[in-house]
Amino acid sequence: MNGWLLAAAILLAGGGGVAVTCVATGPLRRRLIAQNLSTSLVCVALLLLAQGYGRSAYVDAGLELAILGPVGTLVFARLLADELRHRGPRAPRLTAATAAGTAVAVIALAVAAGGGRATVKLLLIGGLLIAGNVVASRALAGGLQEGARPESGRGTP
Length: 157
Fold this sequence. Notes:
Elements (H helix, E strand, L loop, with lengths): L2 H22 L3 H26 L2 H24 L1 H4 L7 H22 L3 H26 L15
Helix pairs in contact: 1-2, 2-3, 2-5, 2-6, 3-6, 5-6
């Protein structure tokens, strides 16, 4: 077992266990935050496993998860907007810690990749994952508000 595989195992066992526990129990706010966190954890774990096993297919799976994970969180935020409207979940420290941890892991992986196309792909995945995580967290914190625009001049003579 090399260091990359050990890091992936620690990430999945520690962070994944906490995220699964929070997704399975507790109030809606905590479940949505944990779902968003679990996407980031699994994506970074896939990148670590790709480096540890030397399989580029895992990087492709990480790219797909980096794109689809935050989209799934936004779908949940949209569907549950009424429940989140009054008191949406807020986790600014967790979001910042997740973004920082993702950045550290992706930079370490990019340095280990040694440049070229693989490094660009890793940096793209890291950027997508961090941006998607921040956008999804903001959407959860404020809820997605429907029809915030006032009707102008319609229906009143």
